[in-house]
């Protein structure tokens, strides 16, 4: 391949590439054009021999298929956008989604949002990139959701479901999960006083978990429950323990945290600052089932979200709707799995 | 906006959009075309009043700038690819990179690789998407690196540097960091026997850390060092402790883990399975400075990578080279910060 002087090298190179088409490759390899295109379509059936023949021609001619230009013609970019509200709390989810899309030859444009409410600013960018669909692990207003329908752009919510809104979602059953935890705590008969540590105020997931816990506690006859606002961080779990002592004058028998990371903070605060025994003096439960929940330091009682099943469901629901935009919205609700841990007294 | 029957709705909608250009918007709003384009360029200067005027016209006409089509004309897609070898170990890095690119109006195509060596399969996809550049937190062969130079596609390695190869990189000084840890351990005078737990065999970072630790231990007069192979996971940290007992017949005075997560596994194994005191019986050190290192359960002595500075450097180095492909490669090496923790005896 000819290379010119350094100033014009890029342009020359780019234009020399541009002249090589899939037709040239097919002719050079002595195969059909559709055979060439099958070699560049992930998952398409093509024999090993055929692939080797085409790839030799590709290398010799310096051919690169332009997925972006193809996208303009086919109106499929083979890109999807994934919104996550804070990657630090959902690394497994992003990893699982990304792996599954990649297996299907679809690429992930990642948008991380500092706050869930940042999403509206991101949407303008998303329209411009002509993605085939969006998975949102962040909140959208009903106006924003309506824009997706207007644009006929498939949208699947990950772990937040909107009641009474026509939109697809995959969620863990937050309320059912909290009920399982509360029934476990209340059923033991040793917990008479409770405190709840909720997550950020703009998180629907946290709202559902807190509501589920409160409802179930009321049903079990515990109506005087201390409520502390956290923000899902370890530090806010530590602070919540101090705040509940200030509010109540003493520690409760059990602390219900809206996620695992705050539960780790609460446990560490109890054990290392207040010299309390967990679970001897106070039981602590979380929600999510992150990896550290099973570490011996914590061995946290929590609800494990079935992340793999949920990610698989979200990916296939989205791609089904890319292929067939007339499919009706669907809400899928997965049960979490109660993880028994030594962070609660029996 | 006219909507046709459900079958043709998408096509009609898409084509009605396509007819609206930035010229139409400019005329409708009574402003210049360049004012319209400034409104869609992140970071561009435009008054609040002007933006409101343009956005009203945009909404009324149903205009969407097509970033993909623009990319074909300008030869800038405003997309970069980020390769990470395993997201679960680097969530902060992806989050920091993504945030910084987004602030500059650049979007991230995320490729997660199960193993660092998967990268070659990913490259073919990357060429097709016409990204402006790549940040690789994964290993590439020198042939693969050469392909980037041939294509004149900017490439910056994150946290792996290749000696004697003309390629840009941002790294934490792994060797210097390990030396600081070893000098801290050896300087106390209480550690006479050592074991090292290394990371996955295809990780350059792990190799550099292990080599740095071994060299420094030899210089300090400790040549009989037990070496165990881990894979960066918590479980492999637990197993490593059992393996070193089998190999040595007893525990060493200090365990040097190639990352923090294995150190957590080793600490938990020592404390909860073997009923040992950390640091009373055994000191443990890690590397990375992940969030959990500062949690009271661990309070791990480690080297904290300056992730924010490193991410900022990687993003600006890459975008500088997108703007000016003739800039020479540059290697930037950041010192880590020794985190004193109660996981080592003094």
Any overview of this molecule?
The structure is a homodimer of 346-residue chains. With 346 residues, chain A is α/β, with parallel strands linked by helices. Chain A folds into 3 domains: 9-65, lambda repressor-like DNA-binding domains (434 Repressor (Amino-terminal Domain)), CATH 1.10.260; 74-172 and 307-336, 3-Layer(aba) Sandwich (Rossmann fold); 174-305, Response regulator (Rossmann fold). Chain A contains 13 helices and 12 strands. A 6-stranded parallel sheet of chain A has the order 2-1-3-4-5-11, sandwiched between helices. A 4-stranded parallel sheet of chain A has the order 7-6-8-9, sandwiched between helices. In chain A, strand 3 (133-137), helix 8 (142-151) and strand 4 (155-158) form a beta-alpha-beta unit. In chain A, helix 2 crosses helix 4 (48-61). The model of chain A is unreliable at 1-18 (pLDDT under 50). At the A-B interface, helix 1, helix 5, helix 6, strand 2 and helix 7 of A face helix 1, helix 5, helix 6, strand 2 and helix 7 of B. Strand 2 (107-112) of chain A pairs antiparallel with strand 2 of chain B, so a sheet runs across the interface.
């Amino acid at each position: 391949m000819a290379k010119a002087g350094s100033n014009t090298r890029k342009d020359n190179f780019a234009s020399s590439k541009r002249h090589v088409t899939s037709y040239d490759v097919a002719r050079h390899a002595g195969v059909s054009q559709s055979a060439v295109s099958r070699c560049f379509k992930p998952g398409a059936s093509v024999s090993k021999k055929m692939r080797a023949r085409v790839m030799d021609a590709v290398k010799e001619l310096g051919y690169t298929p332009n997925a972006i230009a193809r996208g303009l013609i086919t109106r499929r970019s083979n890109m999807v956008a994934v919104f996550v509200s804070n990657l630090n709390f959902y690394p497994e989810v992003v990893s699982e989604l990304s792996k599954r899309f990649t297996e299907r030859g679809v690429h992930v444009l990642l948008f991380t949002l500092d706050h869930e409410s940042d999403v509206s600013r991101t949407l303008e960018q998303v329209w411009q990139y002509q993605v085939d669909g969006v998975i949102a692990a962040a909140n959208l207003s009903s106006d924003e959701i309506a824009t997706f329908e207007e644009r006929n752009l498939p949208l699947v919510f990950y772990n937040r479901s909107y009641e009474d809104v026509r939109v697809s979602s995959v969620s863990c059953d937050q309320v059912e999960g909290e009920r399982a935890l509360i029934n476990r705590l209340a059923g033991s008969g040793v917990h008479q006083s409770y405190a709840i540590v909720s997550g950020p105020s703009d998180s629907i997931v946290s709202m559902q978990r807190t509501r589920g816990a409160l409802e179930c506690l009321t049903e079990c006859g515990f109506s005087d429950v201390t409520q502390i606002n956290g923000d899902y961080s370890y530090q806010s779990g530590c602070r919540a323990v101090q705040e509940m002592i200030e509010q109540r004058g003493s520690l409760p028998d059990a602390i219900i945290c809206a996620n695992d990371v705050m539960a780790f903070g609460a446990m560490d605060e109890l054990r290392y600052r207040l010299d309390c025994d967990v679970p001897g003096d106070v039981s602590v439960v979380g929600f999510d089932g992150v990896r550290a929940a099973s570490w011996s330091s914590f061995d946290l009682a929590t609800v494990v979200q079935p992340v793999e099943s949920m990610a698989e469901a979200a990916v296939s629901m989205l791609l089904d709707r890319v292929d067939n935009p007339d499919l009706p919205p669907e809400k899928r609700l997965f049960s979490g799995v109660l993880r028994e841990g030594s962070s609660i007294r029996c």
